Automatic annotation (TrEMBL):
Keywords: Hydrolase, Thiamine biosynthesis. This is Aminopyrimidine aminohydrolase. It comes from Mongoliitalea lutea. InterPro entries: Haem_Oase-like_multi-hlx, Thiaminase-2/PQQC, Thiaminase_II, Thiamine_Salvage_TenA. The keyword S-adenosyl-L-methionine does not apply. GO terms for cellular component: cytosol. Catalyzes an amino-pyrimidine hydrolysis reaction at the C5' of the pyrimidine moiety of thiamine compounds, a reaction that is part of a thiamine salvage pathway.
Amino acid sequence: MKWSEQAWERITPLFNKIVEMPFNQELLNGTLPVEKFKFYMAQDAYYLGEFGRALSTISGRMEKMEHILDFSQFAAGAIVVERALHESYFKTLGIPDSINPSPSCLLYTNYLLKEAKYADVAVAVAAVLPCFWIYKKVGDHIYQQQAEVKNNPYKNWIDTYAGEEFAESVHKALTISDELASEASAKTQEAMFHAFEMASRLEWMFWDSAYRLEEWPV
Ligand SMILES: Cc1ncc(CN)c(N)n1
């Protein structure tokens, strides 16, 4: 079994929880309160900047030329394509220019930056994989379920993550993960699973924090 298949098996119960989260259910139905989506989009704009930085760091640590290129294209995609989606919503929702990251957002981005810089590069790749793969699976799931929902205000978000362009990046990220895992020791493969599970948990926390409009306790 490929490393990625084993990794997905490990997070399947968590993924099932993610699709059932009120944030994602209400996004699917188009009933998510706009202030929760606005909060999410603002935090996600901060997230994508840091995610892009983590991807660039990984790019610079890759051995193969094509992987250097793939990761720098992922970084450009996070900042150019995904942030363009935010900017289109920002125009209608009026989100401020400067964003203070919530505790969960800061925890997640700092985790990714730390792994990108200091972990074995295969482990760093495993840490960023949920950002691709879980979003693709959530996007597809929502896309398939929302057929009867008319005029969903969150349609552009759904279309981005269920779309072809994003699917191509996800496919590449998966192929690279499996390639690096196949060359890694058993110990490194286990560390890759751990990073993949940790980042998946942080994805759950990110959605949960948006739904709760999370604030700093002090
Ligand atoms: C928190 C989060 N994780 C992943 C993605 C998709 N790259 C995103 N936009 N935001």
